[in-house]
Structure formats: C-alpha cells, structure tokens
C-alpha cells in the first residue's frame, strides 16, 4: 500500500512534534522546572508514530516509560502531556502520575508504565476484552528489548497465543536496557525469533523507517485479527542517556554518532523531497507549526493550576 | 572520624566483605560499569571484575531465586533490586523459596543472601518507584529486615547482614544516599548486630519510635521541643526483624508516651506491630496516653512534588502528633 500525501504529512508532523516535545522537556529539566526524571525517545520517533498512526481510536495501546512517540502517534494532546510532565492539575493524570504514567483512554491509550514489561499482561487482558466483546480491533503492546527478558513477556506471549488474542506485541529494540547491551542480556541477535517459542509469527523491521512500519502495522492488524498475536521487533537506537542521570560510560560517542546519521525524521524528510511530495518550504513550515504547538503547550502547562492536597484521596478507589 | 555518605558506606561494606570472603558475589541490573541506578556500587566492577560483580538481564524473579539457589550451595550472594517496588516481581522466590527453605527442609539448608534495595519517596518518581513496602516482608517468617538511617549504621548493619546465615532484606533510603555521617576508617571492621535498636536521642517525656528516613525528621522535632522544655527520646529500631522489643518496652515505661512514625502507609504498616507489642507488654500500665501511630497517608505516592511531600509524615505533622500526646 502506498501512503497518501496526507498520511506522509501526518507521520512527518508527529515525529517532528515528538522531537520538539522532548527537546523542550529536556530544557525544562535543565531550567529546574521539573522534579523527577524522564526517559526520552529521541531517535526512536518512527517506532511509536509509525505503529500508532494507522490505528483506529478503538485500537488500544499500552505504552512504555519511553513512550512520548507512542502517545503522540495515538493523537494524545501535547498540552495535557506537557501539563502532566510539569505535574499540573490539567495534566492527563491530574499531576499525580507524571510522564511515566501518561494515559488517554479517549484515544485508546491504556497508559504508560514505570515497570519494565508491566504492560504486557495488561495488553493481553485488553485484547481478551476485545475478543470477548466481539470487537474488530486490536491491542498494540509496546515494550523494550530489556523487557523481553522479564517473565511477564514470556507468560503474556504464551497466554495470548493459546487464546489467539488480537494483540500485536511491539518490541522497540534500541540495543540497551539502561547500560546493558542486548549481547549481555540475551543470546540472540534477532529478538523476533522468540515468537517461535510461542507458536506465533515474528517479524523484525528497521525501526527508523517510518513508512515501512506504517505499512507493516496495517498488515499486522489484519493478521492479528484473523490469527491471533504477533511479535514485531523494531530495531532502533536511543540517542540520549537512559534517563536524566546517565553518564553513558557503556557506549562510545562514535556509536551514538553513527546512529544519529540514521535519523528517522531526516530520512523521512529526504524521502518526501526526493519523491517531490513536499517542498523544503512546506516541510519547514510543518516544523514551525510543531515548534509553535509545543511553545503553546508549555504556556498552557505553566499557566495551569497545581493540584490540591484536598483532592489527594480522589481516585484511590472508584466510586 | 572521617565523614562519608550513606551510599559510600554501603559500597564500603560490600567491598570490604568481598575482599574478606571470595564466595561473596554481587548481582543486579546495571550495577557494573553504570555503578547502580543510584551510584552505590561505583568502582566495584573495576575492582572485582565481572565474575563477582554481575550485570544481569532485567529479570528480578530469576536474580532473586538464583541468589537463593546459590546461597544454598556455597555462595553468599548480594542482590540489588533497583527499586524496592520491584521486590514485587521477586516476591515468589523471596517469600516462598528463600524464606522457607531452611524450615521446610528440616534445617538442611541455609540461605545466606542479602537483597539490597532502595525504598521511599521524595524523588519525583511517582507511584511505581516510591513505595515503602517493608511491612510486606516483615510479615514473612524466615526473612530478616533492616532499614538503616545513618552511614555508620548502614555500614555496620550491612556487614552483619552479609555475615548472617539467613536471607536479609536490606532496604536503603534513596533520600539518605547523599547524606553524610561519621564512619570509622576503612580497616576498622565494626559490625552492628541485627536486632539492636539505637537510642538516637535520649529523653524522658515522650518516645518517638521510628526508622529510616524518618529518623532525621524525628530528631529535628525532638530538638525543637527541647527548646521548649519537652524532652523527647528518639529510638531508631534499625532492624524491623528481629525487633529489639526490650528497648522499645523500657523506653515506653520510662516516658509513658509513645509516638510511632514511618513513611510507609499507615494502614497495615509496621507501626501497628510496634503499637501492638507495647500494648501487649507491661509498658501498658505505664502509659499516660494512647499509643499513637503516624504513617504515610493511605494513597499511592503522587508525582507532583507538593503533593508528594505531603503524603508522608513531615516535621509539621510529627510536631502536631507530639502535641496531641503531651
Ligand atoms: C521491573 C523493573 N525493573 C527495573 C526497572 C528499572 N528500569 C527502568 S527502564 C529500564 C531499562 C529498560 O530497558 P528496555 O526494556 O530495553 O527499554 P528502554 O529503556 O531501552 O526503552 C530499567 C532497568 C523497572 N522500571 N522495572
Ligand atoms: Mg532498550
């Protein structure tokens, strides 16, 4: 399937918006405006944006701690994301969750997770609902290479397989779990081979190729609705440290720079210009729009009220 | 005496013990070159190499069970679980295996392992990275539970934990890692026996029983009250299991007023156990006021820093509780 101009525009804009969101968030950290930590996905924008853009609202996703691209891909509102990042009442979690827990049920995001592999059983359950209720939708479960070594990964893939649940397991392989390279945490190079253990289909894709990811996700959705779960591995790289505090002694600058050469946004931009779908000026204009959108988001967040301690017991239990 | 941080004290205890006993090894996520999420093990990989300081995959259940299995067969493993919240993933092996294997095998096995893990809120890490889950492990016979409040205690207690022949859950306090205190020179091999509380400040009008990060807060409150002529005793229990019951009972008898403070949620918290212990003892007849508990609010730890600071006992709320007892 060839992507339309509109679809290309959406992908380019969302990836650019995500990059801008995170670069701005990093500056807010440096300015001392944020308490806590954050995990950035700079360099990995194509993964979440490529997978989530072709989904419908009724398709669910479960996100990771490194999931701004997944949220923006699924059309989350950057104003409320930024407000949550700054701990404000108007944020997605009323300032109680922070960016490790952003969720927007109205667009189908069942939430980001602070626990590595914590989303896999949840996604399996969401897919159970979809199957049980006779929906024609799927659940996409994001997790990292490091998460693929947790028991929850193995147990979830197996359960989803035996029950043929409509879940697409998407492993964002950025080669590291914190400081630990996958060659120290698993004895395989291609994580998608693990699918075979559970009798499900596994594929591995270039995680910086947003167009292919988009196309393959559409095919995967059809496949999953018919046959049950599938494992899609997206091979990519995180440019920044694991979190705010990371001296990155475990990798070389050369390695990081090599991956920066393969920037998913630049790659898409070059393609759009090569194929004469957009002009340089049009793409620059889209970037300016994204920059403005994030500026507005920061203003929205900064002008939002702090949550009140009087509401602290709200939402501990449902009424 | 020289001053070092709480984190350094922990690192020194591990390193000194590893130099003493070749069968002590250390494993966990990102403890090698990275030095641990809080930098506690910085330098250890360089000194001991990858046989004895092992980075593991992200697999808490297997790490913990692997430590238990190795402990039953000649090693003395130290395990680091990056955040105490992730003890929940290790719980099966910790609770059903490590804690039980001596008893259920009729005394044939010993499980000399230490599970080190940082607990507590205050870092803006929100619901899943800020809990104080010590009551969970205190409830399990077969486990010992330690929570130090000073660099001196951390070093001496961790050495004792490593030499102990039982599984010890050693819960560190994130917000204390960078605090400094006096600790003897590296060669001075001191040990603090598990099961001995420490009177951090003597007093005669009221006893605050506490541990971990709440100890410095209780001391601050005690100091403020002493300016007003009220003498508060602050007892740091240091080891929750085994618990120094005698020290608590005799202090309660002496002052007649007891306030128990901890960061963990009040409901089902360890403070209930301490209150019950005092109420069950002869100290009951010496009490001038009901025993009072002050724990964290029964809510998950929120992200927003103002909220986060207010869901655990503060100097203000401890002061208020003391006033209610006087
Ligand atoms: C159960 C659990 N163990 C450890 C951690 C600490 N931690 C947070 S992210 C992370 C690395 C995760 O690696 P990966 O799954 O590859 O995702 P990435 O960070 O690379 O996106 C670790 C160890 C955690 N949050 N949860
Ligand atoms: Mg990774």
What is this entry, summarized?
Chain A is of the alpha/beta class and 319 residues long. Chain A is 43% helix and 10% strand.
Describe this structure in words.
- Chain A is an alpha/beta fold.
- Helices cover 43% and strands 10% of the residues of chain A.
- Chain A contains eleven helices and seven strands.
- In chain A, a hairpin with a 2-residue loop joins strand 4 and strand 5.
- The longest helix of chain A has 26 residues, at 5-30.
- Chain A is globular, with a radius of gyration of 19 Å.
- Chain B is an alpha/beta fold and 326 residues long.
- In chain B, helix 2 links the parallel strand 2 and strand 3.
- In chain B, helix 1 packs parallel to helix 7 (151-163) and helix 8 packs across helix 12.
- The longest helix of chain B is centred in the first third of the chain and has 15 residues, at 6-20.
- Chain B is globular, with a radius of gyration of 19 Å.
- Chain A binds chain B through residues 34-37, 84, 87-88, 93, 95-98, 100-101, 113-118, 146-147, 149-151, 177-180, 184-186, 246, 249-250, 306-307, 309, 312-313, 316, and chain B through 29-30, 32-34, 37, 55-62, 85-86, 89, 123-129, 297-300, 302-308, 310-311.
- The complex binds thiamine diphosphate and magnesium ion (MG).
- Thiamine diphosphate (TPP) sits between chains A (64-66, 114-116, 144-147, 174, 176-178, 242) and B (29, 58, 60, 82, 86, 89).
Topology:
The complex is a heterodimer of chains A (319) and B (326).
Chain A lengths: L4 H26 L14 H8 L7 E3 L5 H6 L4 H8 L33 H14 L6 E6 L6 H12 L4 E7 L2 E2 L2 E2 H4 L15 E6 L3 H18 L2 E6 L17 H8 L3 H11 L5 H23 L17
Parallel strand pairs in A: 1-2, 2-3, 3-7, 6-7
Antiparallel strand pairs in A: 4-5
Chain B lengths: L2 E3 H15 L3 E5 L15 H9 E3 L4 H12 L4 E5 L6 H12 L2 H4 L9 E6 L14 H5 L5 E3 L4 H13 L4 E6 L6 E3 L15 E4 L4 E5 L3 H14 L4 E5 L2 E3 L3 H11 L2 E8 L4 H10 L12 E5 L8 H6 L4 H11 L1
Parallel strand pairs in B: 2-3, 2-4, 4-5, 5-7, 6-7, 10-11, 10-13, 13-14
Antiparallel strand pairs in B: 1-8, 6-12, 9-11
Helix pairs in contact in B: 1-7, 3-4, 8-12
Bound molecules: thiamine diphosphate and magnesium ion (MG).
Magnesium ion binds next to strand 4 of chain A.
């Amino acid at each position: 399937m060839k992507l339309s101009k509109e679809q290309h525009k959406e992908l380019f804009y969302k990836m650019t918006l995500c990059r801008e969101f995170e670069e701005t968030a990093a500056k807010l950290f440096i300015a001392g405006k944020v308490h806590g930590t954050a995990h950035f996905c700079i360099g990995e924008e194509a993964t979440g944006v490529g997978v989530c853009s072709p989904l419908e609202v009724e398709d669910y996703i479960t996100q990771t701690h490194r999931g701004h691209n997944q949220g923006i891909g699924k059309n989350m509102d950057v104003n409320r994301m930024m407000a949550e990042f700054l701990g404000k009442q108007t944020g997605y979690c009323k300032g109680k969750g922070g960016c490790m827990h952003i969720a927007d049920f109205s667009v189908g995001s069942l939430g980001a997770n602070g626990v590595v592999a914590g989303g896999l059983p949840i996604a399996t359950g969401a897919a159970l609902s979809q199957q049980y209720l006779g929906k024609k939708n799927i659940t996409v479960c994001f997790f990292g290479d490091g998460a693929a070594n947790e028991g929850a990964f193995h147990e979830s893939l197996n359960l989803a397989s035996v029950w043929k649940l409509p879940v697409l397991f998407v492993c964002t392989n950025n080669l590291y779990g914190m400081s630990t390279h996958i060659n120290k945490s698993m004895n395989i190079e291609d994580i998608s081979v693990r699918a075979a253990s559970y009798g499900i289909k596994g594929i591995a894709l270039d995680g910086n190729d947003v167009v292919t990811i988009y196309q393959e996700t559409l095919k995967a959705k059809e496949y999953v609705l018919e046959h049950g779960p599938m494992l899609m591995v997206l091979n990519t790289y995180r440019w920044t440290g694991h979190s705010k505090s990371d001296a990155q002694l475990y990798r070389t600058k050369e390695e990081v720079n090599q991956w920066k050469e393969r920037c998913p946004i630049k790659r898409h931009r070059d393609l759009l210009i090569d194929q004469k779908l957009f002009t340089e000026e049009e793409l620059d204009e889209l970037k300016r729009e994204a920059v403005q959108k994030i500026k507005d988001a920061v203003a929205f967040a900064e002008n939002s009220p702090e949550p009140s301690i009087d509401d602290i017991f709200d939402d501990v239990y449902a009424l | 005496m020289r001053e070092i941080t709480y984190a350094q004290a922990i690192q020194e205890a591990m390193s000194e013990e590893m130099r003493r006993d070749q069968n002590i090894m250390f494993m966990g996520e990102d403890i090698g070159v990275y030095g641990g999420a809080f930098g506690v093990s910085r330098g250890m990989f360089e000194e001991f190499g990858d046989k004895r300081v092992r980075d593991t995959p992200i697999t808490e259940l297997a790490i913990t069970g692997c430590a238990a299995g190795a402990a039953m067969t000649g090693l003395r493993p130290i395990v680091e679980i990056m955040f105490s919240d992730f003890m929940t993933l290790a719980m099966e092996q910790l609770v059903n295996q490590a804690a039980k294997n001596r008893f259920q095998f009729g005394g044939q096995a010993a499980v000399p392992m230490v599970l080190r893990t940082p607990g507590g809120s205050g870092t803006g890490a929100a619901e899943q990275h800020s809990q104080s889950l010590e009551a969970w492990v205190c409830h399990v016979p077969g486990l010992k539970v330690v929570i130090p409040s000073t660099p001196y205690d951390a070093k001496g207690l961790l050495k004792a934990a490593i030499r102990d022949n039982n599984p010890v859950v050693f819960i560190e306090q994130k917000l204390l890692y960078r605090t400094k205190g006096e600790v003897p020179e590296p060669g001075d091999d001191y040990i603090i026996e598990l099961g001995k509380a420490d009177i951090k400040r003597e007093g005669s009008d009221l006893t605050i029983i506490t541990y971990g990060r709440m100890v410095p807060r209780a001391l601050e409150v005690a100091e403020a009250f002493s300016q007003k002529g009220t003498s508060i005793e602050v007892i740091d229990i240091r080891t929750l299991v085994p618990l120094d019951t005698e020290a608590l009972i005799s202090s309660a008898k002496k002052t007649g007023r007891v306030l128990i403070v901890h960061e963990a949620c009040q409901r089902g918290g360890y403070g209930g156990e301490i209150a019950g212990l005092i109420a069950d003892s002869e100290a009951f007849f010496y009490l001038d006021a009901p025993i009072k508990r002050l724990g964290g609010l029964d809510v998950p730890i929120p992200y927003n820093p103002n909220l986060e600071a207010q869901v655990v006992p503060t100097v203000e709320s401890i002061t208020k509780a003391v006033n209610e007892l006087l």
